[in-house]
Specification:
Length: 138
């Protein structure tokens, strides 16, 4: 598994929340295998009361060739009211972004492989039919 970091801001660290985040971090590798590292920031910046606490989740997923893929939950519009809902929404977004990146990665590899296979086929054809044969005398 790749290295990860879970940071809690503006409220006390919770073992249950940490386990929920870790479970979703492990699942990310299914969608894009060469993940270099992952950083998750769990915060509750507006602590008006315990019952009305809003949560923000930010996920930074580092993959080869890109600085980071960022997924957020609860920053636009209405913040998430439940910590597990915020975690679910942020990781669903991260999974979607990683799936998209994996598809683009596969398309790029196919386009690179096409010209190379054409070159290899034409070289094989040249070697067999059109290239003069050279014989060595012993």
């Amino acid at each position: 598994m790749f290295p990860y970091q879970i940071t809690f801001l503006d409220f006390a660290k919770s073992e249950y929340v940490e386990k929920a985040v870790l479970k979703r971090i492990k699942k990310l590798q299914i969608f894009f295998h060469p993940i270099v590292s992952c950083k998750v920031i769990v915060s509750s910046p507006h602590r008006h009361s315990i019952s009305n606490r809003a949560y923000h989740i930010e996920i930074l997923t580092f993959i080869p060739g890109e600085d980071a893929i960022v997924a957020r939950s609860g920053l636009k519009g209405k913040p998430q009211q439940g910590i597990y809902v915020a975690i679910r929404d942020a990781f669903d977004t991260a999974e979607h972004l990683l799936k998209k990146r994996a598809e683009n990665f596969r398309k790029d590899r196919k386009e690179i492989a096409k010209p190379l296979s054409h070159i290899a086929a034409s070289r094989k054809h040249e070697d067999s039919e059109f290239a003069p044969s050279i014989q060595h005398k012993a």
